Amino acid sequence: MAALCRIRHRWKRIQYLHVFTRNLAGKCDYDLVVIGGGSGGLACSKEAAQLGLKVAVLDYVEPSAKGTRWGLGGTCVNVGCIPKKLMHQAALLGAAVKDAQKYGWQIAGTVCHDWTTMAEAVQNHVKSLNWGHRVQLQDKKVKYLNLKGSLLDEHTVRGVSKAGKETILTAKNIVIATGGRPKYPTNVPGAVEHGITSDDIFWLQKSPGKTLVVGASYVALECAGFLTGIGLDTTLMVRSIALRGFDRQMAGLVTDYMEAYGTKFAWNSIPKRVDKLSSGVLQVTWTNTEMGCEHKDTYDSVLWAVGRAPESKALGLNKVGVQLDEATQKIVVGADESTSVPNIFAFGDISEGRPELTPTAIKAGKLLARRLAGQSAELMNYDNVATTVFTPLEYGCVGLSEEEAERRHGEDQIEVYHAFYRPLEFTVAERDASQCYIKVICERGGDQKILGLHLTGPNAGEVMQGFSLGLQCGATYHQLLQTVGIHPTCAEEVVKVHITKRSGLEPTVTGC
Questions:
Q1: Catalytic residue among 113, 155, 418, 487
Q2: Per the structure, how many domains does the chain have?
Q3: Residue 333 and residue 268 share a domain
Q4: I need a surface site. Which of 215, 324, 432, 476 has the fewest CB within 10 A?
Q5: In degrees rounded to 5, what are phi and psi of residue 88?
Q6: Residue 355 CB-density burial (10 A; 0-12 exposed, 13-18 middle, 19+ buried)
């Protein structure tokens, strides 16, 4: 055994000597090594390879606290955007079935939802995407390594396999795109032992049943929304406000609709502990901070959606001097995604001050690859990036919130045009449209440049994508009014808004 250990030690020394001599000679195994196989890392690696660089990408999924694992593609593909949107669609179909009867469809028998059927279909689709990513990397001559990567020095990456086997790679440039993972509360006994996160919910083989969702982020609201939509008893526990960082009025409309839709809310509430009873159900104890009283209730599942933490701790960043933000532990980056170490770059959710959105990571990754290949000097533009919250009533937005516009420009220097509208689809179905709303925030003077646009309503993401192009091009309110709408659509209502908040007039759309 001692002899075997000496051989292993000697082999490691040979490996490190190999790395050292290669670096001295200025030669590396790869032009670029990307640590992280999420959407951004894959986009960066494929783009770089297409431009002639020799590229390797390392990706390794640490199981969640509940043991959930998944394949190549990162958060968005496996435990984020893709399965979330599909389960949101399942919920929308449930609402559509109810509407269908008003439209003349004869639906016999009781309509109910089967979690297992949905989950299997969603998971199969995700697995097909995993396989597709592997094929794409192979086709584009990117070396894929299922290894957990960390830095040994500014040009050297150490990869460790599931079995503990070590691989050393050297690279001219290194890119970190490891994203983040959901957090558990650290001060709630039983939270980890008995709770799940968004890393688990989409891979459950059976229905979560009566569920408590703790959190107020878009992840929390989206999960609570689709769980309610497929018929599960769902409660959302919110400490203070929902959708922090988004427009406050719009956030209120979203939660108002969710309450009317059937999601229960425990406002101003802080969980204290989670206990598993002998019957197998989970008893949650919490405090209402407004009333100062304690409550208890039982649930089949508790889903924690209380924020995400960057995957930066195990990267060995301190060894090479990569600067982290003390508060967030994210990597501090420049406008060109550079870190404090010249040839090490980072982008996506791991980077401080960047929007945690898949499309921004993909775009930033591609642009970085082009710069590293010497093909372009273009930087990522993080302004006016549109996004949508896929709650039962979708909320799409681009640009500034009303609060941020007031902070930057002053309340007297902005004009807010708004309208409550009723989607045509809601009329025959007799659905409540009181939270369907449009807000266009503009500069008050000059050409009235549009600063922000917000919409709650069906297909908000599809509507907002087109208008986001307008904001990228510096669209003004006058240009918006000159745009002819497509009738009859929800998007049409955006180009018709003409009533200002300042006027105090009734903003409800009543006709053409």
A1: 487
A2: 3
A3: no
A4: 432
A5: -60, -40
A6: middle
Residue 212: CATH number of its domain: 3.50.50.60
Structural domain includes residue 104: yes
Contacts with 459 (C-beta within 8 Å, 6 or more apart), sequence order: 394, 490
- Please, what's the largest Cα pairwise distance for the chain? 87
The residue among 306, 326, 360 that closes a domain is: 306
Q: Domain check: are 278 and 265 in the same one?
A: yes
Output the DSSP codes for 89-102.
Answer: HHHHHHHHHHHHHH
- Active site includes 487? yes
> Which amino acid is residue 219, in one-letter code?
V
Q: How far apart are CA 118 and CA 191, in angstroms?
A: 27
**Domain of 394: which CATH number?**
3.30.390.30
Query: Where is 172: in which H helix or E strand?
Result: strand 166-176
Q: Is residue 422 part of a domain?
A: yes
| 55 and 98 assigned to the same domain | no
Q: Quickly list H helices, 316-439.
A: 317-320, 358-372, 402-409, 424-429
Q: Do 200 and 302 sit in the same domain of this protein?
A: yes
Note whether 256 and 196 are same-domain residues: yes
Q: Which domain holds residue 341?
A: 27-60+146-181+309-372
Q: Beta strands of 400-449 (E only): which ranges?
A: 414-420, 437-443
Supply 25's token pair: 């000679």
**pLDDT tens sequence for the chain (512 residues):** 455 454 444 444 444 444 444 444 468 999 999 999 999 999 999 999 999 999 999 999 999 999 999 999 999 999 999 999 999 999 999 999 999 999 999 998 889 999 999 999 999 999 999 999 999 999 999 999 999 999 999 999 999 999 999 999 999 999 999 999 999 999 999 999 999 999 999 999 999 999 999 999 999 999 999 999 999 999 999 999 999 999 999 999 999 999 999 999 999 999 999 999 999 999 999 999 998 899 999 999 999 999 999 999 999 999 999 999 999 999 999 999 999 999 999 999 999 999 999 999 999 999 999 999 999 999 999 999 999 999 999 999 999 999 999 999 999 999 999 999 999 999 999 999 999 999 999 999 999 999 999 999 999 999 999 999 999 999 999 999 999 999 999 999 999 999 999 999 999 998 76
The helix or strand, by DSSP H or E, that contains position 287, with its residue range, turns out to be strand 282-288
Nearest-5° Cα angle at 130, 124 to 136:
135
Give the global pTM. Answer: 0.93
The alpha carbon of residue 12 and the mean position of all alpha carbons in its chain are separated, in whole angstroms, by 40
Instruction: Report if residue 103 sits inside a domain.
Output: yes
Q: What letter does residue 380 receive in the DSSP assignment?
A: P
